[in-house]
Structures are given as structure tokens and as C-alpha cells.
Amino acid sequence: MICLFLTIISYIFQSGWTGVNERTFIAVKPDGVQRKLVGEIVRRFEKKGFKLVGLKLVRASEDILREHYWDLRTKPFYNRLISYMSSGPVVAMVWQGLEVVKTARKMLGETNPAESLPGTIRGDFCVEVGKNVIHGSDSVESAQREISLWFGPKELHRWKSSSSQWIY
Ligand code: IDP
Ligand code: MG
Description:
This protein is α+β, with helices and mostly antiparallel strands. The protein has a single domain, classed as 2-Layer Sandwich (Alpha-Beta Plaits). Helices cover 43% and strands 14% of the residues. A four-stranded antiparallel beta sheet has the order 2-3-1-4.
């Protein structure tokens, strides 16, 4: 009885309080797919220790893209951004782990590749802001909104990673 109680408490502590269930939405943009960067990008997130819980290759509809980039609708580059993002398939992913939103943004680099440090994805693989190969949610709230926009609940998978005890 005590063991069961301790197991439940430790599960709640691990998954809820320590934030290891935080999720972010990452998308390899059409230029990243065309330039064969999907494997490299997935490799970086896997090797970091994050857990993949959703992945699909999709040709995003204009409706999804306009909703996804709603905050930027008044920017002069907005229409160009929508046509860039709908110019080919994107690889949409959900990654999970402790502080994954903040860490993923660091792994991506700055919005403008010219300001992104070497070692970051944008710092290593692209040169211009209009073709910056990858998207990553900028906050936990945006991540929740973007994940529910791009993925249905059945497309997100709960699974136990055998390496998690070596990461947490
Ligand atoms: P983020 O992708 O780093 O979060 P945001 O400011 O949210 O940057 O912009 C979304 C996307 O819009 C960028 O990733 C980039 O593709 C595009 N973008 C942002 N600023 C410009 C610009 O000044 N010119 C052209 N495209 C831009
Ligand atoms: Mg953004």
C-alpha cells in the first residue's frame, strides 16, 4: 500500500511538477525538407534527450498557415510567408521534455540566420530570414495552441522512453 502510494507520488512529481511533460511544436519548413535537413534536425532533438510524440509530413492548408501566423498578419512579409510555407510539404513534429520550449528556441537560433550562432540550426543551415528552414513555438502557450492546430489527439503518442532514466 505504501509502495503504491510512493509510486503514484513519484509519478506525479516526475511528470507534473518537474515539467518533463512540457511539449513544443517544431516544423521543418518547405526549404528544410527540400534541402534534406529533416534527418539532421530530428537527430539533434533526439540526441539532446527530448522525446518525439508526434510527427507527420503535411502540405499545410492556407487556413492553417493563416491561423498559425495570425500574430504576424499585419507584417509586410505576411503574404510572402504564407506562400513560402505552402510551397511544399513541411515536417510537423511535437517534442516533449523538461523546458523543451525554451531549449528548442536556443537550438533553432535567432529568427534571422545572420544573427544565429554557429551550432544552432539556423546558424548552421541557412542564410536569410525568409528561408530559415525551421519553426519552433516561442512560449508554452503558443506551443499548446500550435499543437492543437496541427495535430489531432490521436496523432500524439504516449510512450515510455527506455533512456529517460538516464536523462532525468
Ligand atoms: P520565429 O520563426 O523565429 O518565431 P517570427 O517573428 O515569429 O520568428 O516570424 C515567423 C517567420 O516569419 C520567421 O521564421 C520567418 O520565416 C518569417 N519572417 C520573420 N521576419 C521576417 C522578415 O523580416 N522578412 C521575411 N520573413 C520574415
Ligand atoms: Mg514565432
